[in-house]
Design a protein that fits this description.
Strand order of the largest sheet: 11-10-12-13-15-14-22
Distance between the termini: 45 Å
Number of helices: 19
Structural class: alpha/beta
Helix content: 25-40%
Strand content: 15-25%
Shape: globular
Largest sheet: 7 strands, mixed
Number of domains: 4
CATH superfamily of the largest domain: Pyruvate-ferredoxin oxidoreductase, PFOR, domain III
Length: 590
């Protein structure tokens, strides 16, 4: 019996309710005291096309999927065919056999099969085919020991707004699933069990929600955005919550309008943001350059997805790093922060707003679909620790007209900033090159000095940037570098490798630009092998590292670019093989 350690996948067609059921399962696991991580894999259409929802639960925080799926709830044959190879030996499949049968060539002998006519039970016995998802919840709960009272409590919470009839129907659906297991599978245990613990004071939150909450707590009071997967959740969350706190949210007609509205609000003195993905970011490029030359503080959330062009809108990738660093004609200072957990999504968004205003530049919060649309359990966020630093902002009092220089040269490159309405603060704000008063000029000496002023901020800010986090054994011979959603599977790989006698260390980068040169140099010093884990084809992060440390034979790229996140085993195996080869070489020398 495997206790309190299970990964369940719901698979079916988009729009059939499997995602709602997945959310319910995650909530039940959380209320049973387990730590939860979820991952959605769905097609870029409203209805139809294969979708699946993974819910991983255990006694320890694991910010990523497991090596394999323990239990598959398949609402159609396509779900079985798509994921049977991902099943763990000894796992189980709950299959709706109402209208389809499983071919012999698809079946695996090392998997337990529970065939249940979910659709028929829903339509014939209960009168509504839609409740087959709830029946499956009853089946799953009975097979792995989910708390039946918590299941009913949470189902009631979801459907109560639809009336008591709907609630009663779903209660009967749960009972039907439980009874079917007792009657047909009483002598066929699944091999998995759950022991309920204390829920405690915990949250379960999606990455995009944590970003939105961080923006709200940081004082953001304006957002403009255009719906784009997987960033739309931020726009939806802010549209519901920001007006309650005196804020304004605008769904713009396109990404160009969204970013320019955001710049206008920030110029007027409001903490402002937008959220987008790769295609939208491409359209925002020129306006980001305007923010750089006018030294306007603005926060841009980039929820990365698979490219190029439209790519795969609902799949994950880390291929936008070069775009964020280098995009634009000419050069401007910019900051790129990359959270690796739901909690960091909150914390780094707060940091982004402070950095944007302290240094008067655009700051990107770079996340990706595998994090921004995933949920995880976490302790409550301590908003009392949030500090708001607006930098050299003059929003009251007076300045002397004619003497005030909006773009004044300073030691740290940051000039005093007034907002419209400050007496004496009238000034020019041109997109063309200008002097310290904002007067357009092409004087070469001024141009050089102004470029040095703006770009010098990147050095001034280094002590305040979110530092990289070191996991594992500090002096281990094998190093791993990564960022973003890969934090979870890498950190788990480090722990499991250590348990098997292979010691590693992992540098989780949280600031990607200005690039943490010193941290990288220090980390690779003395390492025999360094693996760079990233979700793209060309190794964008590894190229940046090579630019810092120079040629390094021990630098190995570990890349995945099929639109899916890493599982820990995909990181463990190459490193274990390298360690075994190194041991064999040592033996030969001896």
């Amino acid at each position: 019996m495997i206790v309190n350690c299970v990964e369940v996948m719901f698979g079916g067609q988009a729009g059939d309710g499997s995602l709602t059921t997945g959310d319910l399962i995650a909530g039940v696991f959380k209320r049973m005291g387990l730590e939860v991580y979820t991952y959605k894999d769905f097609p870029s259409r409203i209805r139809g096309g294969h979708t699946n929802y993974v819910i991983r639960a255990g006694e320890h925080h694991d910010y990523g999927m497991a090596d394999a799926v323990d239990g598959l709830v398949a609402f159609d044959l396509e779900a079985v065919e798509a994921h049977i190879d991902e099943m763990r030996p000894g796992g189980f499949v709950i299959f709706d056999n109402t209208s389809e049968t499983i071919p012999d060539e698809v079946r695996r002998a090392d998997v337990t099969w529970y065939e249940v006519p979910l659709g028929k039970m829903a339509k014939v016995d209960l009168g509504l085919e839609l409740v087959r998802n709830t029946i499956s919840l009853g089946v799953l709960g009975a097979l792995i020991g989910m708390d039946p009272e918590i299941i009913r409590h949470d189902v009631r919470g979801v459907y109560q707004r639809k009336g008591e009839k709907v609630v009663d129907l779903n209660m009967r659906a749960i009972e039907a699933g439980e009874n079917y297991v007792l009657e047909h599978f009483g002598d066929r245990p699944s091999g998995y069990g759950l022991v309920a613990g204390a829920d405690g004071d915990r949250l379960i939150m999606m990455g995009n929600d944590a970003i939105s909450y961080g923006a709200l707590v940081a004082g953001c009071r304006f957002m403009a955005g255009y719906p784009i997967t997987p960033a739309t959740d931020v726009l939806e969350w802010m549209s519901k919550q920001l007006p309650k706190f005196g804020g304004v949210v605008v769904q713009a007609e396109d990404e160009l309008a969204a970013i320019t509205m955001t710049l206008g609000a920030a110029f007027a003195g409001v903490r402002a943001m937008t959220a987008t993905s790769g295609p939208g970011q491409a359209l925002m490029t020129e306006a980001i350059g305007l923010a750089g030359v006018l030294e306007i503080p603005v926060v841009v959330v980039e929820c990365a997805r698979t490219g190029p062009s439209t790519g795969m809108p609902t799949k994950t990738e880390q291929s936008n790093l070069n775009h964020l660093i280098y995009s634009g004609h000419g050069e401007i200072p910019r900051v790129i922060l990359a959270p690796g957990t739901v909690r960091e999504s909150f914390e780094l968004t707060v940091a982004a707003f402070n950095l944007a205003e302290r240094y008067q530049l655009p700051v990107f919060v770079l996340t990706e679909q595998a994090l921004c649309q995933s949920k995880a359990t976490l302790a409550p966020l301590d908003i009392d620790k949030v500090k708001i630093d607006r930098g050299k902002l003059i929003d009251d009092g007076e300045v002397v007209f004619g003497e005030y220089k909006r773009f004044a040269f300073t030691a740290d490159g940051v000039s005093p900033r007034v907002i419209p309405g400050v007496p004496g603060g009238m000034h020019l704000a041109p997109g063309s090159e200008h002097n310290d008063a904002g007067v357009i000029t092409e004087n070469p000496r001024n141009r050089a000095r102004m470029m040095e002023k703006r770009m010098g901020k990147l050095e001034s800010m280094r002590p305040e940037l979110p530092r990289a986090v070191l996991h594992g054994i500090a002096d281990a011979d094998i190093g791993i570098i990564g960022y973003g959603a890969n934090r979870g599977p890498i950190a788990e790989a480090v722990q499991r490798l250590a348990a098997g006698g292979v010691l590693t260390r992992f540098l989780q980068l949280r600031t990607l630009w200005p690039f943490p040169d010193d941290d990288i140099k220090e980390f690779v010093r003395g390492a025999q092998h360094v693996f760079v884990v990233e979700n793209n084809y060309t190794g964008q992060l590894m190229q940046l590292i090579r630019a810092v440390v120079g040629p390094l034979d021990a630098l190995h790229g570990l890349r995945k670019y099929d639109g899916r996140p890493f599982r820990p085993i995909e990181i463990i195996e190459p490193i274990r093989q390298m360690a075994e080869v190194a041991q064999d070489d040592t033996a030969e020398v001896i």
